[in-house]
Design a protein that fits this description.
alpha/beta; Rossmann fold; 2 domains; six-stranded parallel sheet; 14 strands; 43% helix
Length: 443
Amino acid sequence: MTRIAFISEHASPLALLGGIDNGGQNVYVAELSMQLVRKGYHIDIYTRRDSASAPEVVEWKPGVRIIHVTAGPAEYIPKEQLLQYMQEFTFQMLFFMSRHELYYELIHAHFFMSALVASNIKKTTGIPYVVTFHALGLVRQLHQKQQDGFPPERTIIEKHIIDDANLIVAECPQDKEDLLDHYYADPDKIVIVPCGFNPKEFYPIEKEEARDHLKLSRKEKIILQLGRMVPRKGVDNVIRALGEVNKQKSRIKLLVVGGEADSPDPASTPEIGRLQQVARESGVYDQVIFTGRKGRALLKYYYAAADVFISTPWYEPFGITPLEAMACGTPVIGSNVGGIKYSVVDEYTGFLVPPNDPPALADKINLLLTDAELHRTMCKNAIKHVRHYFTWNKIAASMHQVYHQVLTDVQKPAKVPVMQRAADHTTLLNLLNLLPGFKSSVV
């Protein structure tokens, strides 16, 4: 059995989804790890301890453990403020590996801070690593501008990682183009492996059954927006488009699923308050229903209950929710950006529209809600498309090939405890003892 480590410093499989920092990366790490176990891997997922009550090791699924690394205060910290704790994360991860005499054939880092940890561990132990960035700092800056809260060092670190990693996993062709155009990455070091969906979790359900389950009207047309409540997701664009649709068709509701709490409270999710104001200004306040965060087991009912799923972010490294919606047989109207223009086939499984263009979005909503035959065809096409290309089983098979390529290309270090390869035990412990609170927290 091949033992590999995942590092996902801020996105744990155990986190509740829908919050500001919990979304596609959490799903990616969780689903990919479970599928890789079926291909002979044992996975340890290292993530930052964000609660004092979190146990050090969680035996999460057969063959998958989650290891909580103490790095900074044991509380929620926005990911934009976590870089300062990555040195401590590195040392604590090395110390855990040493205590348990763990050896990993390979590390798969998720996000740039996890990759920084993997890079330092590679220097210390010789263990190779691959990286999935999930988002790139320079691309974020282009869209977020002064609202980008990450420290400027992010881009420097990303450029180092692009040179240092054994392979870079791009999630879609646009992701690869961004790596080439903005970071001058070596094209031979980039492989494209997309995100996926779990067909046991997301599958077609009769619309009436789904609506009855959610206590929704069978008579109204329903548009669905589901995901994290942050400005770049473009939910305001959907609300404004609803104002355009309203001129031509009545009895339409927009469901907005997501947020920091189970209830749609602007106090806990300020973005909801902003969107409610957009709905008032657009004259559709009574047509927009904010549901708050919903448990993952309910999501398939929301997807199946909707006539149309919409995802029109400013930019999107990939976007898993369109896959889940299509898996449930719901056509998708998405922004012609990033991974969405890769997963949604225009005029076949839905439509692609420019971001921030409510009239263009409204036109496509009108078309799908008024042309019953087109809607039925796109429902069938959507299911067929994602089942053929985007199941997590297929994604894991592709990732297995990535790992095999790396392990074939590199000269494997000898399988000895990590401390013996890291200069010596005393030297590393001296480094560890420089960390605040280390002596008091480690026995």
